[in-house]
Amino acid sequence: MQNVKNSFTPASYVKILAFLHLGILATPAILALFFYFQIQDAHLSFSDSDDMFLAIVPVVAMVGIFLGDFLFRKMVKSIPSNMGLKEKLARFQTACIISYALLEGPALFCIVIFYNTQNFAYLFIGLFLLFYLYLKRPTKDKVLNQLNLQGAQKAQFNRLNQPID
């Protein structure tokens, strides 16, 4: 009988990162659908002066976007170029998860506020955040470009089914 060893390959790395991304994206999307079908008298209003969330929700959304992107760039830039590929990919995965979470949190916040106020404005902001999160979907090319892999590491990452040492 042949001993089959589970190997860490670039293809499996991208697949795992994409699965994590999908899981983080799916939670607020499912919650949004659930709340949308629970609401009876929803409306769209940007002029309700008694609704303090009209000021809070857009700020929370913008902070999530900019803070997530800032931290992601900072964490990726701090990865030493002389580090091994496996360690680089682990740090990149951490940076991605933090970036995704900083979009998921505000999206969930928007969706819960939509459910409480029944104002479609918050749902639209939440859906915008989910769309932006979707655009951050990890692919092989994005990993290569964002990590700026060069030389032997780039060649090793391009061999999708070869184990990474």
Give me a quick take on this structure.
This is MFS transporter. The chain is mostly helical.
- Shape field: elongated
Work out the number of β strands.
0
The oligomeric state of the chains shown is single chain
Number of helices: 6
Sheet having the most strands: none
Q: Approximately how much beta-strand content do the residues carry? A: under 5%
Low-confidence stretches: none
Averaged pLDDT: 92
Helical content class: over 70%
> How far do the termini sit from each other?
25 Å
Class by alpha and beta content: mainly alpha
H/E series: HHHHHH
| Rg of Cα set | 20 Å
Notable traits:
elongated, 165 residues, mainly alpha
Structure description:
It is a single chain. This protein has 165 residues and is mainly alpha-helical. The chain has a domain at 10-40 and 70-145. It has helices at residues 10-38, 53-77, 85-117, 120-135, 140-147, 151-158. The longest helix has 33 residues, at 85-117. The radius of gyration is 20 Å and the shape is elongated. The two termini are 25 Å apart. The mean pLDDT is 92. This is MFS transporter. Keywords: Membrane, Transmembrane, Transmembrane helix. It comes from Flagellimonas iocasae. The chain crosses the membrane at residues 12-37, 52-72, 92-114, 120-135.
